[in-house]
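Retro notes
What went well: the complex prediction finally ran end to end.
Inputs used:
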Amino acid sequence: MNTKKLIDLLKTWQVALLIILLIASVFLIYPHIEDEEFTTNLQYGLDLSDGTWLQMEFQAEVVGFETERTPGEFLTELQKRLDAEIYLIDDDKVEIRKFFTREQLEATFSESGGRLTSYEQGVSKETAEQVKKILEDKLNALGTKDAKVNPLTGLSGISQYVRVELAGVSLSQAKEIVGKQGRFEIRVHTIGNATEHILYGDAINTVGVPTQQPPGGSAWGVSFTLTEEGAAQFKDGVNQYGATTAPDQHYLDMLLDGNVVYSAPLSTDLAAQLRVEPIRELYASTGSGEGGLSDAKNLEIHLRAGALPVEVKVAGSGYVPAALSDYFKTMAVVAFVVAAIAVGIVIYFRYREPAIVLPMIGINISEIVILLGIAALIQQQLDLAAIAGLIAVLGTGVDQLVIITDEILHEGKVPSPNIYQKRLTRAVGIIMVSAATVIIAMLPLALMDLSTLRGFAIITILGVLIGVLITRPAYGKIIMAILSK
Amino acid sequence: MGFINYDVNRYTPKQMVAIPLVLLILSLAVLGYTMATTGMPVTPGMDFSGGTAVTVFTPDSPDSLSATFSGYPLISIGEGVSDGKYIKFGPMDDDSLQSLAALINERYPDAKIDQIGASFGETLQEQAAFALVLSFIGMAIVVFLAFRTFVPAAAVVLSAFADIAMTAAVMTIIGIELTLPTTAALLMLIGYSVDSDILLTMRVLKRQGKLDEKLAGAFRTGIIMTTTTLAAVAAMWAVSYFGNIPVIPEISAVLFIGLLIDMMNTWLTNAGIIKWYMIGKDGSVKDRVDTSKGKDGSVKGKGSK
């Protein structure tokens, strides 16, 4: 092939795109030496980096209901009978934050004058997001270097599990961190900036979700209840330091682990009430609009002091030590290289023509590089299953190059550009259908929450897409240029 | 490929389909029997039945290991090369699990531990079964949309079904458990096994030329395709098996078995059906339109080889 031909080849968009993406991928993967160790920007899953995973199941369920009564009445009745927190999340759906079997609920629902229409264990997306936030806050506060929290949401939008991955932490440490609560405290301002203790988090009985008070008003806030003892402590404390007589001079502070997270005076109504009797039902307002709502959400989390709104049970867990994960990583690379060599040998035996074999291998490797580049870009974690997917992409990627080559070489040497184009189109037709089947077959895995296999499915689908859209068209041009000498 | 002496044009469609058909019936019988005796067509692994798996490199003998863990519901101790040990426990409560984790941490700080609760395992199993069914239906829809002719499309779907059923039967017989990784491999098989079927069907339906030439050409390309994937998968299996890496050996073993079975189903089942279909079609259409080519050509071709 002469220089002019090479330049012409580089000018075709298929080949140019391949090269641009290849260079971009190398930058995305960014192989470099850091602390005398070879590293890249690739993210590794837990098999390949030391740490612990915990998969926890929400002890709650989302159920649909029907009732002749008003929903308000019905839910109040239900709440009383079940003794659980119940939230309306849709017109006809509630989230019950305590575990019950379907049979138990069916019975209670009919006793309360309604009917259960659907039952799914788990929590609504909003609750799952809140749990994620609480866990992330907690893990960040502890300075855990690399923590990932993912609620696993099914196709119905209900999350049954939340998965936590902690790098460099042992199994028992991880369980402790996740279960640990922060220390919540309410203090009152005495003189100037000096404050005095009133109560700790154990005095808080329940915490509500952000609401507007009065209902439909503009201001957001969070209601919470105190234990009987806590209410007495609260009354004594605010009276003793004068917060009930001059609320504006004696703000109340809420602290989590020593940091002030909320500060406001008693309202005049409440101050007047507290002068006479202990109050158990309290409401902390945070302001109006979007800002008020997000402050209310944070306050709710702080009031819970790191406790999750829904109880969770460990459903599965695992730990990989550093020595083993390093070893797996090395072996994964070895497996990959050996597989690439094996594929090369098979192709060589078939075509015995370096001018065909080398571009094939080259295209194959660039496909993997681009795939890794995209994995680095979208922060897709590579675990052992994903590596297996990668190697399978390598094997089947060659398949499709074989289809193209054979289709073009059909009946001897390479034909005129016209016929060539027709044959390439036909080859691409075959490839498209088989790519579509692979993507469709992998789609359920990519969408479902069989969490550990998601990486495998995503890598496979990406690999097929890169092949069909980028590397195969480029290979078509290259092999044409090479064969038409 | 010189070492494959099969000639796709030598046998009649009936002869071609006979062997895989018998094997398919046998496979379904194996799966049915296992289902009747254990409740699952394939032996479920820890991911689905719940339990704890420990991977550790230690020179300690299985006997001393089972003495160490005698207080826990030990199921089996497997040995790999270079001192790799795989210890499996049945489901246990959270307290026992914590103490087991502590014990392992103390004795074998470099052990990998994985634990799946029994009810979580059940959920995973339901989802995996659902994913398999969904994948298969999705694949069938793509195939029917692509070919829009009943017999060729049905032949592809049937041979994909035979691939999965036979692979599952072989897994049961040689003792590969159904786990998350092997489920992934089966799903992948659904996608990849139709590769060569699609090549065959496209070539036969959309190319011009004699049937036996088209079949022989498709066979040449198809075999090299499957061999490259087999080579990659075999290499992956060898390295991961002898290197004691978890997950990858099972995935590659299932893919390897599945691809071998797929070779048979593509070039016997699918090729047989499509040949029968083309001969039938040629016979009815081309007889009347053009008696000199078509049917005669393909019959003669078949006889001469």
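What we learned: Chain B has ten helices and four strands.
What to try next: split runs per interface for comparison.
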